[in-house]
């Protein structure tokens, strides 16, 4: 990776490691938006409208997270990769296997499981970033707080 520059206080090796961690998070954030939109379009059954309408704001929130992550990568001198093949190339998590239309309960259970991995991966990134760059770590921490809140919303529908 050829960096255009580094920010004051970070050397090139640290910047490259931070960018790599953030690129992985960017890819999962982008995929999460797609997974959520798929659920939004295909959810059926009891509580349809509540779940359908609950998902769209989360799509926007996750896309805003992706934008913030991509801008941090650029700030660090990197080039964020938002192409679909980057999502696949960076994928280190399990996706959702639901295709087609499914009940609200099925989608919510699958999304809760997806968020378990998403949040755990973000928390792992935070631990790594804490040692490298507190600014990047704080960005991901803010993302986790939002993700955990939405996961709580989904779990509350399942009680």
From TrEMBL:
Residues 20-158 form the Ferritin/DPS domain. It holds the Pfam family Ferritin. This is Ferritin, Dps family protein. GO terms for molecular function: ferric iron binding; oxidoreductase activity, acting on metal ions. InterPro entries: DPS_DNA-bd, DPS_DNA-bd_CS, Ferritin-like, Ferritin-like_SF, Ferritin_DPS_dom. Belongs to the Dps family. It comes from Bifidobacterium psychraerophilum.
């Amino acid at each position: 990776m050829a960096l255009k520059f580094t920010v004051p206080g970070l050397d090139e090796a640290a910047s490259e490691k931070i960018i790599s961690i953030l690129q992985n998070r960017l890819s999962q954030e982008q995929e999460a938006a797609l997974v959520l939109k798929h659920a939004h379009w295909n959810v059926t059954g009891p509580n349809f409208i509540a779940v359908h309408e609950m998902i769209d704001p989360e799509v926007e929130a996750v896309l805003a997270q992706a934008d913030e992550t991509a801008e941090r990568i650029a700030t660090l001198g990197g080039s964020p990769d938002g192409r679909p093949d980057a999502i696949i190339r960076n994928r280190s998590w399990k996706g959702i296997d639901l295709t087609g239309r499914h009940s609200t309960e099925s989608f919510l259970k699958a999304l809760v499981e997806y968020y378990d991995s998403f949040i755990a991966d973000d928390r792992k990134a935070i631990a790594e970033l804490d040692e490298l760059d507190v600014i990047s770590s704080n960005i991901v921490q803010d993302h986790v707080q939002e993700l955990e809140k939405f996961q709580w919303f989904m779990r509350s529908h399942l009680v």
